Amino acid sequence: MPRLKFSGSRLFVLDTNVLLHDPTSIFRFAEHNVYIPMVVLEELDNGKKGMSEVARNARQVSRYFDTLMESASEEDIIKGLPLGNSPYLPKEERTDGQLFFQTGDIEPSTLLTGLASSKVDNTIVSIAHRLQQDNKDKLVTLVSKDINLRIKAKILGVHSEDYFNDQVLDDLETLFTGQSILPDDFWESHDKEMKSWQEEGRTFYKISGPLASNWVVNQFVYLDDGSGFSAIVREVEGDSATIELAKDHSTPANDVWGITARNIEQSFALNLLMDPDIDFVTLQGPAGTGKTLLALAAALEQTIETKQYSEIIVTRVTVPVGEDIGFLPGTEEEKMNPWMGAFTDNLEVLSPSQSNDDWGRQATQDILQKWLKVRSLNFMRGRTFINKFVIIDEAQNLTPKQMKTLITRAGPGTKVVCLGNVAQIDTPYLTETSSGITYVVDHFKNWPFGGHIKLHRGERSRLADFASDNL
Prior knowledge:
Strand 1 (10-14), helix 1 (16-21) and strand 2 form a beta-alpha-beta unit. The chain starts with 9 loop residues before the first strand and ends with a helix. It has a six-stranded mixed β-sheet with strand order 3-4-2-1-5-6. By secondary structure, the chain is an alpha/beta fold. The chain has helices at residues 16-21, 38-46, 53-68, 74-79, 120-134, 147-155, 186-190, 264-273, 291-305, 332-336, 341-350, 358-370, 400-407, 436-444, 462-470, and strands spanning 10-14, 33-36, 81-82, 98-101, 139-143, 159-161, 179-182, 195-199, 202-208, 220-223, 230-237, 240-245, 280-284, 311-316, 372-374, 388-393, 415-420, 450-454. The chain folds into three domains: 10-161, Rossmann fold (3-Layer(aba) Sandwich); 172-245, Elongation Factor Tu (Ef-tu), domain 3 (Beta Barrel); 255-470, Rossmann fold, CATH 3.40.50. The protein contains 15 helices and 18 strands.
């Protein structure tokens, strides 16, 4: 292979899984250069068939390459194709990085002759190693979502990194929780210019002070001093904010479909779920915190009792925890039913009869068939839900692109609720900081019609709580 001459200080060699994970990754390395081995193109060609997300991404990457090479000569390809004038980048993000392709054979160095040349991963490592040998004054980095390939590269002295551009944030602990505890001296430091009023039975306060400027719309603030004060932020202007007293759903008078909140976080969640002005709600937390039960209770209350919504739509990604049981017979709903056990279990809790008799089970089935429709994620593209209560379960297993596809299905009068636990991600290449639910929580936190609550306390049973904390 001819010795590559490139400008800049860094060259990124991309593994196939990076391109399949994010087709726009070739444009995400700022002013640095990108190198694509020939075996990566072959793997893209092998993966382009079908209707899966991976196949679509493979085809999209090929279209990007085709556009960049449209008017390029053979000499231009060898010298590197400019990425800065790409039509896929906003003008303010356009840089002078270049895209290089492997244009000749490469012989592995003596260090790498023991690697099996038939393996694609070994070929990619060999190419990255040779590029580093030929450009000792530059830093060559192999970028891959494959942990084993990164380990192999580091053992052989090749600098390697994960693909970080899809990370929503560096530390999950910094993710917006939707709530904030007020200091004990809050009223003393914020009540100098306080105004209060009532409107349609709702109590509002306009507060000025140092904390108000850091609040986010639809964030909950509360005092942990036993006073029971809790409010939701409705508007933020500079160092002043308008807050509304939150409804206490822990009392029987404010129950939702017979369910009362067992802690303050659940009460906050029900405030968001029952608010007609909030179109998008995310509930995140470990198993047993009541995410599904609260969402389903709010859906039944507003669909059957108040008739605010015409139907409940439930969907989730079908990623098995263990071995797959194979193909399932029946219609779309019958195929999805085994995946919806969590909703069936909670419907039994919410059904009019708590007994195990035939009537109680039949009542649950009637609710399922009449008001609750189970839909597969595979058939969502192109649909529009009008006046529906949509629940997306196990949202931690969705990519940001899949989340966008689902949320954009919402038509007029539709509310979308996402439930997830980032500690239970079963999808390859997704992490806590790149999961779809983390993505939407971060991007919707300043939107006045969206709300988020992170639930911490388990309320399933003492056995489940102990197992969650200690296993």
